Amino acid sequence: MISTQRSYKVVKANEIIQKARYELNLTELKTLAYIFSMIKPNDTIDQIYTFSINEYCKVCGIDNTSGKHYATIKQSLKALRDKSFFLMKEDGTETTVGWLDKVWLNKGSGKVKVRLDEDMEQYLIGLFENYTQYELLSTLPMRSQYSFRIYELLKSYAFTKRHTFDIEELKRLLAAENYVNFKDFRKKVIEIAIKE
After folding, report:
1. Distances (CA, A) of 155 to 18, 126, 149, 196
2. pLDDT in tens, 93-116
């Protein structure tokens, strides 16, 4: 069951990968990837996705014996519900998009229900062209949010065989503008991503 879930595909529109600038920590990125991997091709808008906290922890390799996992997941889901980001449209307009619309947690049953933000659904549901897909397992071992984002960016450009990033644009996409010195950016972002 767990190995099956780890092989589920995460599918996203290229636009949300290539043109969005957002700052999420590694747990938030993995949580989203886990939720997105539950989306099926025939899903419709306003779908509610349900999962077990223990199952989520096992699939994502999170220690669920310490008792802190519930609070950690609760905090991550709340952050994903509260955060939004700007997405650049084709005409140059920037628009805000949220991740999750609603989250329900039941500590007694250990179940979580989530509904995607209505603006996010168009980038995840019913995609037939211009999308990126990868197995959830590909990102689970990563320990850096930058590695996760670079992996998604590279996967989104895989069909072109080659893509060049301007350093400042890459920093912007990764929300890593705090690395002013290229040496620090290379060491703490690029080299770690290459290794992972």
Report:
1. 10, 19, 10, 15
2. 888 999 999 999 998 999 999 999
